Amino acid sequence: MKQAITLYQVDAFAEQVFSGNPAAVCVLDRWLADDVLQAIARENNLSETAFIVATENGYQLRWMTPEAEVDLCGHATLAAAHVLYQHLGVNEPQLTFFTRSGELKVERSEQGYAMDFPATVPTPVTPPAELLRGLGMDAKAVLAGFDYLLVLESEAHLRAVNPDFNAWLSLDRRGVIVTAPGEQCDFVSRCFFPKLNVNEDPVTGSAHCQTAPYWAMQFNKQTLMAQQLSARGGRVHCQVQGQRILLSGQAQDYLLGTIWVPLSTTPSAPAVDDHSR
To answer: How many whole angstroms separate alpha carbon 95 and alpha carbon 77?
Structure first.
């Protein structure tokens, strides 16, 4: 037997369609088995698929790449909020998502949607040899949060980066963020996750949880405008608030459809706390 699931595809951090980062969103009545969720994400073949299940106090939210579940994803969270607000008639002033990274709050804002995420301050590290070998050029600074952070001199240097992804497959972090001061914004970045089968991510919300605190200290300012310089590109408004950060951006609808998946008989137990037990 099979069951029908409505699938939304949303361009997140996008001011117009075909820009930003596309994410799939599936709103479920109950959790399916993990292997079914992973198969859906693999079939979608987008950098992330978000899965939502409503609870008494909010929404459980999980994110999966084509290869694995991840602990934090900004653009798919923004896409999930967009679906709830724009397509499912949710009128609450603020959404609460329960995730593997704790509670995440999202509300509508002048910039589209504002997401309250945990900030991560990257710290200087001695780079492993394969990190700089994969970059193919010198870095001004090397730091690490849950990704490696490579700081370059200029936006021009950033645009010229052509990584050796094979060199980065054995790194002990999720991925590599390369960043530099921006020419028409505060800072720019590019994000690479070959271990997750996403060589270059179009726009990465979670990366700005690390880059924005770094540049806030460099520029001595808490509100910054960022741009991710992928082929699709996208803008992220960042406001650093101590150990939290507000990431804001727009979302655009691209696709609405129905997928058919095997009826799950062994639902998963997600590692999230919905405070309803």
So the answer is: 11
* pLDDT at residue 122, rounded to an integer: 97
CATH of the domain at 80: 3.10.310.10
In a domain, residue 110? The reply is no
The predicted-structure confidence for 91-124, as pLDDT tens digits, reads as follows 999 999 999 999 999 999 988 999 999 999 999 9
- Amino acid, single-letter form, for residue 67: E
Residue 58 lies in a domain: yes
181 phi, psi to nearest 5 deg: -60, 145
- pLDDT average, residue stretch 14-31: 96
- Residue 276 near residue 57 (C-beta atoms within 8 A): yes
Tell me the residue range of the domain where 52 lies.
2-105+251-262
Domain contains 76 = yes
Total domains in the fold of the chain: 2
**Same domain, yes or no, for 127 and 232?**
yes
* 277 lies in some domain: no
Tell me which residue has tokens 């050029």.
137
User: Taking the CB of residue 180, how many other CB atoms lie within 10 A of it?
Assistant: 24
Contact 11, 250 (CB under 8 A): no
CA distance 246 to 237: 8
The string of DSSP codes covering 120-132 is ---EE-PPPHHHH
DSSP state string for 21-80:
EEEEEEEESSPPPHHHHHHHHHHHTSS-EEEEEEETTEEEEEEE-SS-EES--HHHHHHH
**Residues with catalytic annotation?**
48
pLDDT in tens, 243-276: 999 999 999 999 999 999 987 656 666 766 554 3
